[in-house]
Amino acid sequence: MHQDSQSPAPSITTLAELRASGHEHRSVKAEIRQNLLAMLRSGQDPFPGIVGFGQTVLPHLERALIAGHDIILLGERGQGKTRLIRTLAGLLDEWTPVVAGCEINDHPYTPACARCRRLAAELGDDLPVTWRHASERYGEKLATPDTSVGDLIGDIDPVKVAEGRTLGDPETIHFGLVPRTNRGIFSLNELPDLAERIQVSLLNVLEERDIGIRGYALRLPLDVLLVASANPEDYTNRGRIITPLKDRFGAEIRTHYPLSLSDELTLIAQEADIRTDAQLPDHLVEVIARFTRGVRESPVVDARSGVSARFAIAAAESAAASAVRRSALAAAAHGTTGGTAGGVAGEPPVARVCDLPAIVSTLRGKVEFEVSEEGREDEILVAMLRRAIADTFRSRLGSVDLSGLLAKFEDGGTVESGELVPATDLLQRIGDVPGLARIMSRLGMDGGESFGQAAAAVEFALEGLYLMRRLSKDSADGTSVYRT
After folding, report:
1. Across residues 174-178, what is the average pLDDT?
2. Among residues 280, 200, 292, which one has the least CA distance to residue 246?
3. Which of 145, 155, 218, 469 is the most exposed place for a label (fewest CB within 10 A)?
């Protein structure tokens, strides 16, 4: 079975050596079935990196693979369909023997193409054998309207004909992507985008497991697991899967967005590319996760389009990038070259709550609103972001005594902050904060001498207090104790 670290290929080079080794030929579906069952029995994760599907999607997928079914994954954009499909290559044997030089990976025991059958008859036990790694046995194609039958199945190769072979010679065929993935897994993404007349060419692949190319009386038995993905919206907006093709897939499995906040947090932490020169505190990741879920569940957002997991990932990366930008500008203002965001030398920039509003305009294009909300998109997203900040504040600091922090503003004083205000400047404006260590602890920060973390904690506490007052209309004069 395929392992994370690649081991050397076996040294067997001929059919005779392969037979002597005791090698047994298995079909791809039998291979996947046996390897999947072995992983389940040993407690291994067959689908590493897949978040939130453990009790919903994966049991259906496991049953389909054990049954030997071809599969359609059906779900909105950004639900991890392609990511899930790519993990299937990990269920293949790490190395498998093929006839050396075969375009369609024929097994030495059962050569299928005309070339390999001819070589097997000529060479017998001296038939040359080579080995293919599991990573080379996975093929993928994004279905587009201009995809042809030749791309998927194959066509006549004019170069081979020009070399003197006759059109009736089956060795003049140039094989398409599907037969080239013979004895492997082939993924067809966004299947409804494939023209209906092209979908017809897959009917025999799924049922009779063979292909026909132009006028050839050719039966080429294929050993392949076919997996497709589709977005339900595509059925009406761009195309559809023809009924005979849908009928030939053994399983249709629905995917979904993360069902819980914890899954959303895990997904962001796993997928967001936060560079080592910045820190994104846990409480801001939670704000982004709550914001994403709020947008996804909002009645003013088109649920058919969905809100991709890329929305949260891009938000997290943008917030961290904002902190790095602040650091660079602060360094320029102070005439230094270090990236400190106003902190101490060597301290990485820390994202703060003031970095979040800027992500609204950059993320707006990822959300499809109902037509009735046209023109109010930014306003709606800003309101949802504030609600996410307030909910995170209530979750993280709702039970913490912040009276010492509030006391600093009893006389109507204000402290201005913003995405360009360095951490040290913000802390100097606020002064000593009673209970700061407890606030940072509740926000999951290690504290220490980090000016950036301290500023992020204090700013979040102040923003949360302001929003809670605003949302509950407790402010007596309608003014805020904190302005961003």
Report:
1. 89
2. 200
3. 145
Task: Encode pLDDT of 93-106 as tens digits.
Answer: 999 999 999 999 99
Task: Record the tokens describing residue 85, joined without a space.
Answer: 């499909």
pTM for this entry? 0.87
User: Residue 188 corresponds to which tokens in the numbers above?
Assistant: 């067809």
- What pLDDT is stored for residue 445 in this prediction? 86
Looking only at the bridges linking them, the beta strands covering 129-133 and 251-254 are: unpaired
Write down the H helix ranges in 101-212: 114-123, 149-152, 158-162, 177-180, 196-199, 203-206
Neighbours of 389 (CB within 10 A): 25
Tell me: the pLDDT tens digits for 119-142?
Answer: 999 999 999 999 999 999 999 999
Structure token pair of residue 84: 């899930």
d(CA 91, CA 68): 13
Other C-beta atoms within 10 Å of 308: how many?
Answer: 19
Tokens of 480: 């805020």
Phi, psi for residue 189 in degrees, rounded to 5: -85, 145
Cα distance between residue 89 and residue 387, in whole Å:
42
E strand spans, 143-262? 154-156, 173-175, 184-189, 224-230, 251-254
Which contacts of 149-154 are long-range, i.e. CB under 8 A and separated by 24 or more positions? Answer: 149/176, 149/198, 149/201, 150/174, 150/176, 151/176, 151/177, 152/176, 152/177, 152/178, 152/198, 152/201, 152/202, 153/178, 153/179, 153/201, 153/205, 153/211, 153/212, 153/213, 154/179, 154/211, 154/213
CA 268, CA 309: separation in Å to the nearest integer? 8
Burial class (CB in 10 A: 0-12, 13-18, 19+), 413: exposed
Residue with tokens 């000529």: 122
DSSP string, 43-56: T--SSTT--S-TTT
Q: Are 183 and 96 in contact (CB under 8 A)?
A: yes
CA gap 57, 3 in Å, rounded = 23
Contact indicator for 151, 211 with CB cutoff of 8 Å = no
User: Please, which residues have CB within 8 angstroms of residue 362's CB and are 6 or more apart in sequence?
Assistant: 314, 318
pLDDT over 90, % of the chain = 57
